[in-house]
Amino acid sequence: MPSPDIPQSRNPPPSNRQLLILLGLLISFIMGVIWLLNLLINGLIGLIPPSVEQKLGAVIVPAYEQQAQPSPTQDTLNQLLARLEKQLPPEQSKQRDYRVLYLPEDTVNALALPGDVIVVYAGFLKQVESENELMMVLGHELGHFAHRDHLRSLGRRLLVRTAIAYFVGDVGALESLAISGLATLSKSKFSQSQEQQADEFGLRLLQQTYGHVAGATDFFVRMSQKPGASWDFLSSHPSPGKRVTRLQRLIKEQNYPLKERSPLPENLNQSHLISSPIEYPS
Fold this sequence. Notes:
This protein is mainly alpha-helical. The protein has 13 helices and 3 strands, in the order ααααβββααααααααα. The protein starts with 15 loop residues before the first helix and ends in a 28-residue tail after the last helix.
């Protein structure tokens, strides 16, 4: 029996179970708000003109331009890109200025930057054995521009970080969102669904350009067999093995033909590539 001298609290502290339920409800509410806002943002992306992406690129691209070296290799890459552009619908090429920057470094990677720029590294070209597989990768990067993936990724990251900062009350985090968002964009990391859509886009461009899709999976097959050579590519792209499986399924579903591959242009052969050692910060 409780002592009459000790007043009993009418509002006992919540149990651990009650706290977990409240926390779960709060998290569910936050995620619901983020989901609804994400739908709204995705619906508005199509209304944003390409000039907005180009302004983002004006902040990011100059750093890559300083590393690029105008050369016959870069000229040839831009000629190949122009062939793919001819297959784009008008709405995906209007107000666009697609171009390739060739970086003479041993990094095994190719990536799309906001501002209609595709970066191709010498290390990536050294792994390519046909024009077709090179065009598949260039077409994939064009797919990111066609789907406005840079703006979608930026919107999604800023949305999540803003929501977290708002509910946590971190004003400093809110102030640094724009800078961190641009830094993330420069690394060109996209979601799994965005990468899959870009692969489908590249496959269609390959079919439209050559009348077949031979070479579509060749580069990814080799990357899956050379894990040591694929780390840079894996940092901004999905697992090569999974991509091969999915592309093979798409090729079969679409009944795309497989014919003879086209050789690489002469100045894209390994012996003609300009290369320089990778410099690490001291």
